[in-house]
Amino acid sequence: MRVRVSAILFAVSLSILSLSASAATYLQVQGPVNGTLDNNGSIYLGTVGPGQSFYIQALPSTDNASGAYINIGWDTLTAVSLPTGWSAQASPLYENPMKLKVTASPYAADGTYKLVIRAVNLENYSRIGNLTIYAYVNVTPDVLGVSVAPSTVDLGVGQPTNLRVTINNTGISDDPFIINVAGLPAWNVSDEVIAQPLSVSTFVYPIYFGEPGVYHVNVTATSATSPLVAQSSPITLDVKASLLNDYYAVGQGVVVSPVIVEPAYSLMLLLSEAAKLLGIS
Q: What is the value of pTM for the model shown?
């Protein structure tokens, strides 16, 4: 009988310990990866380029020591300790979800870095204290891939065409990228785009040129916050003179032409406009 009672008491004690262990505060991280962490827990967030920024996103809800659910348990998410040269902006008070912005040092060498992050209950209002986690981030400039279609483009002088630039953002930053072309004389047109983290996005990049010739150029995507984060894709542009384009250009000069040739120039303009309406190049 005594052995049976002891066994029952032991089982009850284990149940109480199990309930006590499960009734604890936690932080539910939602980005850039998902995870529910206890105090002093750790999580790997992913990869970022030197100088790029990213957000650690988490919910303010948690449980207290009694297991009761608290909707707004954490009032802000802040960085307690960062690697040298890194910076952070704490989430605004009572933001839901909380978003802590972290910026890697532009001089960070390749490697894995530890960040100490804290979920704060201001003045311990909910009687849950604070919760600290350890976040790990890998730094490398190799966080994107770039491809361009078509790789060979035939176009007329002054005729715009659209390139399809695909960016594979393998990092956790949503900092903008700048698309531009290097290799064309006097060409300095760029386009700023947002490629979502851990995703593949395709953008339309219009291009044209005013001089005939064959040009071997590079279409490059560069992080707006880090020149070290950049990738290029080569393409060939075959820019050809077009009779209709010449007619159009000549026709545009009618107002400064001698009166005797104005009818011919006007006819050229009319022909070029008609061809453009009909889709003839």
A: 0.74
